[in-house]
Design goal:
Its cofactor is a divalent metal cation. GO terms for molecular function: hydrolase activity; RNA endonuclease activity. Belongs to the YicC/YloC family. Keywords: Endonuclease, Hydrolase, Nuclease. This protein has 288 residues and is of the alpha+beta class. It folds into three domains: 90 residues, Ribosomal Protein S5, domain 2, CATH 3.30.230; 31 residues, no CATH class; 137 residues, Butyryl-CoA Dehydrogenase, subunit A, domain 3. The protein is 61% helix and 15% strand. The chain has a four-stranded mixed β-sheet with strand order 1-2-4-3, with helices on one face. β1 and β2 form a beta hairpin. α4 runs antiparallel to α5 and α4 packs antiparallel against α8.
Length: 288
């Protein structure tokens, strides 16, 4: 599936201990070039993030930014478990009915009893797991965006290929007529000038003219290249570089067609071909 290198994704998750958000944006680049902006406490996770990018992406400049907003846990970090505290009070009261002289424990002693206090401060491992999970979600979403845009690029390129094939077919159809017309034009000029030339010389001139006007080879190669572009668009994996090379080959044939042109029809066709090829090349710059 054709994938674009241009995409953006933003994902956010809210927890009791805070809020995390990821922003991942990607633009075209010759190679894979990841950049990370992370809070210092998550810097150790960067290697894993880079590894995930390498497994799922092949090209593009990818900027990843993590934002972390921690909740203020100073006031609510330690909470009294009311149920356990009530059970402890009942136990102390009951012991008082059995034994004389039992002192009521101090508040500090009560707080030190197991199960009375619960710490709701965020667990570091839990936070890191959430950060990793949200990164993977943002990355998958960004890849989906790249694929959707790739489908649009595919349609644009296919449309240009259809136009190129139509021009190539038109030139191929008109080529015999063009060569015959140029041959007759040369004979008419010689006859009008009343020039007596050696028949062998005339034949040689006609052959040279036909060779110059014959662009059948270039037309055939143009058709071959468009077929290969269509085939590449259906390939899996990165295809951008191969498509870029094919654009160079298409442009080379269009330039040759222009240089060999001896009539306005083929000149105009060559110009139109170069316009279409350049339009495709601009879109291919964004294909992975």
């Amino acid at each position: 599936m054709t994938a674009s290198m241009t995409a953006f994704s933003r994902q956010e998750a809210v927890y009791d201990w805070g809020t995390i958000s990821w922003e991942i944006r990607s633009v075209n680049q010759r190679y894979l070039e990841p950049h990370f902006r992370l809070p210092e406490q998550f810097r150790e996770l960067e290697f894993g993030f880079r590894d995930s990018l390498r497994k799922k992406l092949n090209r593009g400049k990818v900027e990843c930014q993590l934002r972390f907003y921690a909740e203020d846990t100073a006031a609510k970090g330690l909470n009294i478990n009311a149920e356990n505290a009530q059970a402890l009070a009942n136990a102390v009261k009951e012991l008082g009915t059995w034994f004389d002289g039992i002192k009521t424990p101090s508040p500090l002693q009560i707080l030190q009893w197991p199960g009375i206090l619960s710490d709701e401060s965020a667990d570091a491992d839990e936070v890191k797991k959430a950060v990793i999970a949200l990164f993977n979600k943002a990355l998958d979403d960004m890849i989906s965006v790249r694929q959707r845009e790739g489908e649009q690029l595919n349609a644009i390129i296919e449309e240009r290929l259809d136009s190129i094939d139509a021009i190539v077919a038109d030139v191929k159809e008109k080529l015999p007529t063009i060569i015959a017309a140029q041959k007759q034009n040369l004979l008419d000029k010689l006859e009008a000038a009343k020039v007596e030339l050696d028949p062998m010389r005339v034949e040689a001139e006609i052959v040279m003219l036909a060779q110059k006007a014959d662009v059948a080879e270039e037309v055939d190669r143009l058709a071959t290249h468009t077929k290969e572009v269509r085939r590449q668009l259906k390939e899996k994996g990165p295809i951008g570089r191969r498509l870029d090379f094919l654009m160079q080959e298409l442009n080379r044939e269009a330039n040759t067609l222009s240089s060999k042109s001896i009539v306005v029809e083929t000149t105009n066709s060559a110009v139109e071909l170069k316009v279409l090829i350049e339009q495709m090349r601009e879109q291919i710059q964004n294909i992975e």
